[in-house]
Amino acid sequence: MKNMLTKYENMMVNRIVTLRKTKIYGAIQRTMVLLYPFVIFGAIVSMIRSTTFVKGGFFDSLFKTTSWIPHISGISFFLGALARMSVGFAAVIAAYGVARFLAEEFHRDEQLAGITAIIGFMTLNFYNVEDGIVGFETAGIGFSSLFFGILAGVITALIFKLVGRKKEPEIFHTAQILQRIFHSIWAIFITITLFGIVNMLFYLFMDKALSSSINTWIYSSFSNVHNFFGLLALISVSIFLQYIGVGSPLNPTQFAGSDTMANIDAALKSKSAWNVPYPVNGHSIIGIYTNIGGVGSTLALLIAVLLISRRRNTQMIAQQAILPGFFNFNQPVLVGIPLIFNLTYLLPFLLAPIINMSLAVAALNLHWIPAAVYPIPTATPGILASFIGTNGNINALIFSLILLTIDVLIYLPFVRAAERVADLLDEERGQKNDVKN
Fold first, then answer.
1. Does the keyword Iron-sulfur apply (predicted)?
2. How far is it, in rounded angstroms, from Cα 372 to Cα 375?
């Protein structure tokens, strides 16, 4: 059995190393890392705002912070602006990064390709509000639309490859810069025009960003599903969407469907959460146990990295991302490790939440734990959600800790595999790696 697992790991590592060498995949992975400083900043700011400066946040529920902190609305607005202008522009940065890195691989002008990708992608999300006022779909340029930013970057770079000329040596004089622009001008025109046409066609059929429509459908579907296979199908689709950079609606810890309301009503009347009509539903399973630390149960990945990783950079990312991850803000680990479009982590990213959900359904049906029927404050730490949702049941808290431990064990071998991939790539490039001595 051990030999079979070793053989599978070797095969997986070799295939991932081969994939990492492809131009498009390499550009995407480099772009995810480029996003990291903006995303970690935005995640920390969002965590502070959601827990402390928003009514119903975790610390507000404990200490009533919104009632005694002065100028609370102004501070909340300021923090919201910081988050919006950092992680809220993630897809725009992704479009720039992918176009730049991929154009560089194609020996085209990477600076002009990156700028063109930004303008083209913003054109894709442009709309005319009224009386000539310019607006952009906020959902279309933020973290939940990374996939579309990546796609825009790839398309831009391919157009530059097909239409533009090869990049000239480094130039500094105005005349030489103009010559460089002339070499890429048709690629610029075609790219922006293409995205403008797509924008026009897109809004002829839809009045919302595609990612928002997908998430709205999944979120509404979760609200009143209370059977295992229905939740399994929905969670699998949603987590896969997050893996490819389309935002997942699984981050919220509440799913307020009619069955959730019926559970709360029954619990209040009987003063117990043990005999509610719908113990298995979106709130009691998905919102509480499935994604501890964010979609994909990524708090476990951070712990696994801290336990066994030998690489300084990976350790630093885990150290920086562990606090927001504790409060379910997992965007930093999604782009810092990275997880998005990273084949190494696809299996545990899907497997850990599904195992969590399966065990939670079994525990509820066996009456080992009560249903988590009570509302959860915004940005409640994932490992405390069950304790609060069951009104302080210690069995539920212990069960969450057991799930987190299982998730760490699931991620450990894949962290080792990721380290091997990184080591092999370093050796082939002749680079000194960042492994700790």
1. no
2. 8
